[in-house]
Design a protein that fits this description.
Number of helices: 11
Shape: globular
CATH topology: Rhopdopsin 7-helix transmembrane proteins
Helix content: over 70%
CATH class: Mainly Alpha
Number of strands: 3
Mean pLDDT: 78
CATH architecture: Up-down Bundle
Strand order of the largest sheet: 1-3-2
Strand content: under 5%
Number of domains: 1
Length: 317
């Protein structure tokens, strides 16, 4: 009896902490989307579309995971039904995967932007400029197909109890498949994550090398265009570093929880916090990237909505 109020207070503080994290992230991501919506569409480039996509999936990811988890910690009973659990977890997993794909696309595109035009960089620049937006369709199909089995493995607890072969996700639970399918699916999904992480890291290192050589060659020049690209590259490298820090650890904990069958509240809390931290904090970095959009906020072009659909395929790199 004496420990119950302590546990309740701990849950309340945890719930308020997650609610604060989610609210902060939702507001920041919404501000970025609003900045692009009111901007003159003639100023929108391909890299801006990638940023918008990243912001949107981060926003949905925060809402799908943060809202029910915070409500659960704050003591709201039966946060989700069985169908709700399936829909929320599937949405979260797909948007989380799209977040890393969008961040990877952002780093690849920026590398192509600052890369020299000589061969083989010229071929790389042309391919990226031509297909970078089309790749989003492929990523949506890939991730939606990859996690299609997720609704079959998750459900809502009944009377606060979960099956024996299941891991506690807080407001939902996930049952384990047979050993071989479980290992294969986990290796495939985490393999995609680490492949993205490796590609982003490689792009960031390459950008740093190019920027260092560039600064040595044109140290005596003052170029506004060059300084803008340098600033954009540094922002994207910071974004990639943030992702590697948060989601790298989160992926490791996911593997740990799967193999050890560890669904302890501490492990669940850390995983939820880390997986939501990137979506909540990254807008602070992206806001610096979107300064030109905020500068034009009061001067919305009324024809933008009708023109942007036809202009997306014609935007230059």
């Amino acid at each position: 009896m004496g420990e119950h109020p302590v546990n309740t207070m701990q849950d309340l503080l945890r719930g308020l902490g997650f609610l604060l994290q989610m609210s902060f992230g939702v507001i920041c991501n919404a501000i970025i989307l609003a900045a692009y919506l009111v901007a003159d569409c003639s100023d929108i480039k391909k890299i801006d579309i990638i940023v918008c996509h990243l912001t949107l999936v981060n926003l949905v990811s925060l809402l799908s995971r943060g809202v029910p988890y915070s409500m659960m910690l704050l003591g709201v009973p039966n946060v989700l039904t069985d169908v709700g659990c399936k829909a929320v977890i599937y949405t979260y997993r797909v948007t989380r995967a799209l977040s890393i794909s969008s961040t990877c696309n952002l780093s690849v595109f920026q590398l192509a932007t600052i890369a020299p035009t000589v061969t083989p960089w010229g071929i790389f620049k042309n391919l990226v400029s031509k297909y970078i937006l089309h790749s989003f369709v492929g990523f949506w199909i890939l991730h939606m197909s990859t996690y299609i089995i997720m609704p079959l493995t998750v459900g809502a607890p009944v009377n606060n109890t979960i099956p024996q072969r299941a891991v506690n996700m807080g407001f939902c639970y996930a049952t384990f498949l047979d050993y071989i399918p479980e290992i294969l699916i986990t290796m495939f999904t985490t393999g995609i994550d680490y492949l993205h992480l490796a590609l982003m890291t490689l792009c960031s290192i390459t950008m740093l090398v190019i920027l260092k050589r560039h600064s040595q060659q044109v140290r005596y020049l003052q170029s506004t265009t060059q300084s803008v690209e340098v600033r954009a590259s540094k922002i994207i490298i910071s974004l990639v570093s943030l992702y590697v820090m948060f989601h790298g650890v989160d992926s490791f904990l996911t593997l740990y929880a799967t193999y050890k069958k560890d669904g302890s509240p501490i492990v669940v809390d850390v995983r939820v916090f880390l997986s939501s931290s990137y979506a909540a904090i990254s807008p602070l970095i992206l806001i610096h990237f979107c300064k030109k959009m905020f500068a034009r906020w009061p001067f919305r072009n009324r024809e933008c909505k009708s023109r942007i659909i036809t202009s997306v395929s014609h935007v230059s790199c």
